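Data availability (excerpt). The following record was deposited with the supplementary files.
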Amino acid sequence: MLNGKTTAAATLAVLLAGCASAPQPQPPAIRQHAPATQAEPFKSASQEVIYRVFLGELALQRGDQQQAARQYARAAQLSEDSSLIRHALMLAYRTGNDRQAWQLDQRWLKLSPGDRAARQFQAILAARLGRAAEAARYFGALTQGARPMSYVSIASLLGQEATAPQGLPVMQRLVDAAPKSADAHYAYAELALHYRHAPLAESQARRALQLKPKLEGAQVLLARALAAQGKFDAALAIIRSRVQAAHNDVALQLAFAALLAQAGKDTEATHEFRRILKRHPLNTQALYSLGLLELSANHFGAAHKYFMRLYNTGQELSTAAYFLGNTAEMQHQYPAALDWYRQVTDGTRWLPAQYAIIRVLLASDLPDAARQFTDALAADHPEAAGQIRAAAAQMFADHGDKQSAHDILDAALAKTPNDEDLLYERALLEESEGKVAAAERDLRQILKQSPANVDALNALGYTLVIYSTRYREALGFIQQALTLRPGDPAIMDSMGWVQYRLGHAEVALKYLREAYSLQNDPQIAAHLVEVLLANGKRDEAHALWLTASKQHPESQELKKLGPRVAP
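Predicted structure:
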């Protein structure tokens, strides 16, 4: 199954707040266009540092972070300014050059051996480079001293900055070094659940509770791990008993209501959230959750009411404005939707709100305005220009204007030919048009630059399954993707489908069942129906087809299966 890129802002976790706001070396005020080369040798190291920083800043203005990272890395090698070295490290880190970032971090530590941010970078970079034992040792050292880093903070950092194969071995070693620490087991469970390793999360949460039965949050974590495995009755029993014992614990009541919603018990969940609001009328999580429940049920009036109440608390203005925009957009009230989206000024909803403005302009039959807004947004945010234009192209294509989508992507790639967001989006567009060779070429270009790009690995594997008989080659790409991102339903669907094409129908069934349990997607449902039929499970295939067809009446893949599943 092809996975569309997320439209949420892809942000890196900065390990110390000061890193984001550290003073940046300023280039000298010389002419706008510097020469591409400089006569050698430089008169001094400081002269070359100034020159490299200037070239780096010009590259950043063009949106070329790779070139900026190279120039700043060279400047950092010649400098003993820790703030410049730190800036060079962050550029290397953002561009995925972990080995260069590691070298810069070692230089930073040599100059400032006690710098806590440098030591945190050392630990996370060791994890990302696959040096699990070193990373565990560095993180272990950070748990000691006057300002010890908690195991939960370590797990959170690993979850943000490392893949499952990188992060889990580090946490395993930390737990092995502190086997009787309930906090360590709890943090390991949190990380495992983040990576969708629910059975591991369950076992670690249970161990934490054995060591400390009253550990704060451990029972809720155990319930979440059970729910992630579809064991909703057991999960609800745990939370229900805790809610009854704790009486007025609002956090537990909210967790219980959220779990009811996750289990599909929307009526009960709504009842629980309303009970919370009766006692706590300004509780933002209850207002937000009720708004989402009503919106998912297409109860637009009720959704608007709850999101307005959330907005009026003054605590979650951007979140409330975003969903008020959603509510208006779903009712085709486009001027009102635009007004609300423009009020989203910060936070994680900001970039999705900008994309929503493009979408609403297209829905309002204003494609020129949508293009102008896209251009202005990309110009104002050059660091995310590729992502912005890729998202805009996807929206034009979804709106039926594939030519404009191509124009946006081709023009942007002419300026930044190696931008992976743009290449990936163009590959998806080409695949949708049956231009398989072109799609494969763009995906292979991404993998040449970033061999561990999970989306490209999965997309290339799935494309080969659908449009060729190169199933063994496809299997290799999909296996790599699943190793890097285990538990992803789109990749599990790809794995199920390639196994089916290879003639392994029973193995395919295992992957497709799990994928469908994680994501109620019509394409996954269609694949599962197909494989159920191949395994001789006609009754189950027919029942699933009926349910999925009611939920996704627009799905052409499900419609095509109709004659084959008739009893």
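Summary of structural features: The chain has 32 helices and no strands.
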